[in-house]
What we know:
The chain is mainly beta. Among the domains are: 55 residues, no CATH class; 113 residues, Immunoglobulin-like (Sandwich), CATH 2.60.40. It has ten helices and 44 strands. [4Cu:2S] cluster (CUK) binds next to strand 4, strand 24 and strand 28.
Amino acid sequence: MRSIKIALCIAAAGAAAVSCGGGKASSTGGGQATELTALMKARGLSEADVQAALKTYTPTGKADEYMVFASGGHSGQVIVIGVPSMRILKYIAVFTPEPWQGYGFDDQTKGVLAGGKRGTTDLTWADTHHPALSETGGDYDGKYLFIGDKANARIAVIDLADFATKQIVTTELIGSDHGAAFVTPDTDYIVETTQYATPLGGGYADPKEYKDKYRGAAVFWRFDRQKGRIDKDASFAVEFPPYVQDLADAGKKVSDGYAFFNSINTELSYGGNAEGNPPMESGMSQNDMDFMHVVNWRKAEELVKAGKFETIAGMKVIRLATAAEEGVLAFVPEPKSPHGVDITPDGADIVVGGKLDTHATVYSFAKIKDAMANKTYEGKDPYGVPIIAFKTAIRGQVELGLGPLHTQFDDKGNAYTSLFLETVVAKWSVADLKLLDKVSTHYNIGHLVSAEGDTVSPDGRFLIAMNKWALDRFNKVGPLLPQNFQLVDLTTPKMTVLYDMPLPLGEPHYAQMIRADKLAPIEIYPPGEDPITDEISPLAVVGGKERVERKGANEVDVHMTAIRSHFTPDIVRVKLGDTVRLHITNLEQAYDATHGFALNSYNINLSLEPGEHADVTFKADKAGVFPMYCTEFCSALHLEMAGYLVVEP
Ligand code: CUK
Ligand code: CUA
């Protein structure tokens, strides 16, 4: 118990002047240590539990060292978490309307959601998988976050100045994605890759024509940093065979200019288990090898400039034959039902986890590059894409255990791979491909994330195991359980689990962890700012200029302000059938002085952060008197911050 006494003395010293030195504790210190020992006993805590608590407990008023941006799975949102405390700091509304942020209620954010519209149906959810922080020189720069929607093939742009979603883009070229979002080292492009192949550009083709008519593609969305938005017109795509592309990663440093994509269906299986075909899962896992797709995207960029593309569904597409002929695309075999592909921090190696293999396979980028330059190929696939021999491309393999998926890195040359079936994190040395340690996770780990673990200079230190099942970890909450994030200490000789955090909002497939001091979010908006255009709204209202203007027979513009603790005007008179446009500016310039705006029966609900301007358009199609009020307890007179919409019959 010696070490725990020391730990407790350290803990106690913070609260009172306690001398724990010299072997013999003072009577006060001894008393506190006894109290703490009693507390440990009463709560059934071990020495390891208390050590874990000391490593994670974050007192009131203290901020976290790292921030995690986790995907919200099919909630369509992003979850922001502090590390090591594992406190949830924010849900960022991305693809799904979210009332707390007023997201999807005002004209501005409705417009953002409409940017991702496919066809005529409003999409009110997403299956978010992979968040990607913007990078400069391969390092997180803390400026932007991107995330992909697997279900609807969309990419969202989140500005980390205000942690708000600014843009959603989609292309009808593809029908779903998974290798998304991944950024190139200077965030020139955000990569989005198909998962389930469909005819390019949509349209009809019977699944029996899978081989000939179905295709995948990697979309390279051009990011305009100046504007902080994706430039759709400057984006392009590379066509792939229908091999069911999976995860992707961009090269960095020595492999900058290249991107790598897994695939899982060289069998070209397309289902039909009620039509005499093998079911997809066995149909897609017959072959021992699938193909890693290697794309030289800088070369692809040149081909697009040279006009060697076809436009499909508004997207410039380098066709498969062109990509193969011009050395833009090559394949490397990879065992067996591969899932994760992760580039080492120096950019020299590519690590692939094969779900049905016990190894992580480590490919040498130098060998792949040489083979592509010298056209050292072992053959071509049925689509004419050159194949580099497995033996030619690998540096080696490391035997890890059952079901390797994803890999992260630390600052000491180690890699950490999640083993789904064995449900452990395996630590191994990248240089000599040696397994070093394993730690059990609960249960069935999917992704894992280490501090700055995808960058050219990872920190290591902390790792989160993102587990698919929770089973007996928490209080029971019915048949739908949260997932379990387990914080793992990477600083100890053996990895240790420090903390279990339930995550009850979709399945957060992936996350990235950034040093908190790299983020510099704003505290308030400049007066009258429209957060979606990042400019002062031409409709911003200043104090004293509030008014109601009737335009034509049945259009009304309401120029309104909000400030503690009233809306002006607080009675809005319109006529039945009017189209009403509310223009509301929060005049506050004090940090945290948010006002809400709720309007009875019309499904109107805004969150107006200090300085923010928002517009709402609706038809007054119901006569009557409708209370409107502020939804944030903003002052002692918050309940008085109210009014009426009067719709005259
Ligand atoms: S996937 Cu979920 S565990 Cu979408 Cu990155 Cu691997
Ligand atoms: Cu404003 Cu309550």
